[in-house]
Design brief:
single chain, 122 residues, mainly alpha, 3-stranded antiparallel beta sheet, 5 helices, globular
Length: 122
Amino acid sequence: MVPASQEPPADPPADVLQEAAAAFGLLASPARLHIVWVLAQGECDVTGLAERVGGALPAVSQHLAKLKLAGLVRSRREGRRQVYLVDDPDVVTIVRLMVGQLADRGAGRGSGRREGLRGLGA
């Protein structure tokens, strides 16, 4: 029996889990994850993002629209340009943590096989 002072935290409500799953679903796209990674470093316009992530301008614009609708990024006008930035600092923390951890694991393996989460259908 677990003492009352050490009870596990209550499960989150279903709507919170649904929202988290939706955010993770959006970030499940390597292109959108890369866009958030780039924007975590600072503001950028769609042309700069397309160059950095290696995507076509229309595709990057569509990814940004989805991220914007979800409230993960926002934009502001700067003259004739639309500049994008991350609108949720907690998402930046999660992305940096996950990508950083996986990069560290990969560096520790050297030239070994990189199976990790890919084989799990993630």
